[in-house]
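re: ur msg from earlier - yeah i can do the zinc ion complex, just paste it... oh wait u already did. ok heres what im feeding in:
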Amino acid sequence: MVGKVWVQDLKTDEYLRIETSFHPGDKYIPVELYVYHCPPCMYCAKADLFPLPSDLVDQWLDDGKFIQDVFPMLSKDEREILISGTHSECWNKMFGDDE
Ligand SMILES: [Zn+2]
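and the outut:
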């Protein structure tokens, strides 16, 4: 999450996350963000703030779409933080990571 920004591809209207070294140009435009408050992590109790495109948050929370359909650009670990707040490293500390 850190070091990346959300943009929208002007050709496809797709939302993308790219490195902050990017300079806005003809191809992408910055998007309106909603700072989503994740639930507190079961292990470290830290609740992350996760900036997400407002439009996608609406699709996820208001329209009831599946998170993997709305946020295919996020990793499985990142989607887990949105749903349960649990960090993958904390999950590993609780249950071991020898999967
Ligand atoms: Zn944690």
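cool cool. The chain has one domain: 30-99. ping me if u need the other ligands too
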